Amino acid sequence: MTPTAGRTSSVAIEIRFAIGQSSLGAILVAQSTRGVCAILLGDDPDLLLRDLQDRFPKAHLMGGDGGFEQTVASVVGFIEAPGIGLSLPLDLRGTAFQLQVWQALRDIPVGQTASYSDVAQRIGAPSSVRAVARACAANPVAVAVPCHRVLRIDGGISGYRWGVERKRALLAREADAAATA
After folding, report:
1. Which of 92, 102, 153, 159 has an alpha carbon 20 to 30 Å from 114's alpha carbon atom?
2. Strand, helix or coil at 68?
3. 17, 63 in Cβ contact below 8 A?
4. What is the mean pLDDT of residues 119-143?
């Protein structure tokens, strides 16, 4: 499905969501019947909810029930202690290229990083470094598709849609988890 297909679909989908708190701020987790379709990080829960509404304007958004709260707890737990891992069914909606990039990101282990150029090489599109960066920026499921593990070619931390400080914190936690594993 293309990014616009999810927005322009004439079929309304049901999406459960809940907003929780982590040491990195507010976190919104949303799930369709196919899997988690959004994990959004930020400081303002209202802005996170508006972002979800913008992503899925035709969706029927429902507050999560007790069972769904466990999914949110799993995501928060992973943020706090990345060594526990995170395995959730995902409902990723993007272009074929974005899906390819997001899969390559999921193949980067906890505690390791790659450059945008490395990711472009891994997917067989070495001249698509900027497109890889755009796919990372379009990632709708923070931490589940670990775009925070992608760095500049010189190893420097570059932009992160949920804030460079969050990216830095996630990387530090993952490095600690990998060192103690």
Report:
1. 92
2. helix
3. yes
4. 96
Residues 101, 175 share a domain: yes
Average pLDDT over residues 121-146: 96
Among residues 58, 84, 110, which one ends one of the domains? 84
- Cα of first residue to Cα of last residue in the chain, in angstroms, is 38
Average pLDDT over residues 119-126: 97
Choice among 30, 38, 105, 147 that is catalytic: 147
Q: Is the pLDDT of residue 3 over 50?
A: no
CA pair distance 126, 19, nearest whole angstrom: 38
Average pLDDT of the residues in 89-101: 96
Total domains in the fold of the chain: 2
- The answer to whether residue 91 is domain-embedded is no
89 belongs to a structural domain: no
For 18, the token pair is 């809940």
pTM given for the model: 0.89
Q: Are residues 176 and 102 in the same domain?
A: yes
Verify that 42 and 75 share a domain, yes or no. yes
**CA of residue 70 relative to chain centroid, distance:** 18
**Catalytic site residue 37?**
no
> How far is 155 from 131, CA to CA, in rounded Å?
19
